[in-house]
């Protein structure tokens, strides 16, 4: 699920706290806004092999 909430990309330099918005730009400084949600998974997941093996064992 993609998040619609965005945060100002320049908030550390321009603001004293994060500025959240739903638009593509910051309402206070006009900088671009980026997605505030973390990535849903890590492609280099070190435990992915073990998790998939457990799912296979539980399925059988």
Automatic annotation (TrEMBL):
One cellular component term from this protein's GO annotations in UniProt: ribonucleoprotein complex
Top-level taxon of origin: Archaea
GO molecular function, one term: snoRNA binding
Keywords linked to the UniProt accession: Ribonucleoprotein, Ribosome biogenesis, rRNA processing
InterPro entries linked to this entry: H/ACA_rnp_Nop10, H/ACA_rnp_Nop10_sf, Nop10_arc-typ
Biological processes, Gene Ontology terms: pseudouridine synthesis; rRNA processing
One Pfam short name: Nop10p
Function: Involved in ribosome biogenesis; more specifically in 18S rRNA pseudouridylation and in cleavage of pre-rRNA.
Family affiliation: Belongs to the NOP10 family.
Protein name, UniProt field: Ribosome biogenesis protein Nop10
Organism: Haladaptatus litoreus
